[in-house]
Amino acid sequence: MKNQLRELRAARDWSQGELAEKLGVSRQTVNAIETEKYDPSLPLAFKIAHLFKRPIEEIFSADGS
Amino acid sequence: MTTIPVSESSCGLGPRAWLPPLLWGLAAGLSAGAATALFVLFKLPLPLRAALVALPLLLSLGYIACVVRMLRRVDELQRRIQFEALGFAFAATVIVAMAADLLEQARIVPVIHWGWAGLWTAMALLWAAGNIVATRRYR
């Protein structure tokens, strides 16, 4: 799955650690999502969408779409 | 579920997070070793023998409870890493035990009575190896 997490984080000038703290996860998790090595669970994806005030489909998209 | 981020190390959990399960595991292993030695050295009454059998089992339950508590504290990626490592350790231990038994039966290697201690040691080492592999995958 592709995502815009790195771009959204960079736009707010947050470090991975800061974003991790806001989401209640480890920095390793934020990094794994950004590098698309790990797809977050639905609750975490909603948490990310809520934090960035964007619809979930604007942040995450299937590889083919 | 509330998740509490923990400090990271190469294995995805802070070193301090491993201390309680390590201590429980050591206590269980040492008490089992001591019980075995006492059974060999002394002729003990039945209630004492039963207590010596129960002690390592109770400490092992503490160890398992400690690991479960640790897994509940970590976030979703770290939990996945631990489950992948545990799954790998479980399957690999079965294969290692089977290979060792077959090699012994075929008299390719001398017969060594590994016992439960050997099995637990193999599983712990393979868990650590699985941890390293799974952590690298998501790095």
List the helices and strands and how they pair.
The complex is a heterodimer of chains A (65) and B (139).
Chain A: E1 2-3, H1 5-11, H2 16-23, H3 27-34, H4 42-52, H5 56-59, E2 60-61
Antiparallel strand pairs in A: 1-2
Helix pairs in contact in A: 2-3
Chain B: H1 19-41, H2 46-73, H3 76-105, H4 115-137
Helix pairs in contact in B: 1-2, 3-4
Short description:
The complex is a heterodimer of chains A (65) and B (139). Chain A has helices at 5-11, 16-23, 27-34, 42-52, 56-59; strands spanning 2-3, 60-61.
The number of distinct β-strands of chain A equals 2
Fraction in helix of chain B = over 70%
**Overall 3D form of chain B:** flat
Q: What composes the largest sheet of chain A?
A: 2 strands, antiparallel
Number of helices of chain B: 4
What characterizes the major β-sheet of chain B?
Answer: none
Characterization of this structure:
The complex is a heterodimer of chains A (65) and B (139). With 65 residues, chain A is mainly alpha-helical. Chain A is 58% helix and 6% strand. A two-stranded antiparallel ribbon of chain A has the order 1-2. Chain A starts with a strand and ends with a strand. Chain B has 139 residues and is an all-alpha fold. Chain B folds into 2 domains: 14-73; 75-139. Chain B contains 4 helices and no strands. Chain B has helices at residues 19-41, 46-73, 76-105, 115-137. In chain B, helix 3 (76-105) packs across helix 4 (115-137). Chain B is flat. The relative contact order of chain B is 0.14. Residues 1-12 of chain B have low confidence and may be disordered. The chains are: A mainly alpha (65), B mainly alpha (139).
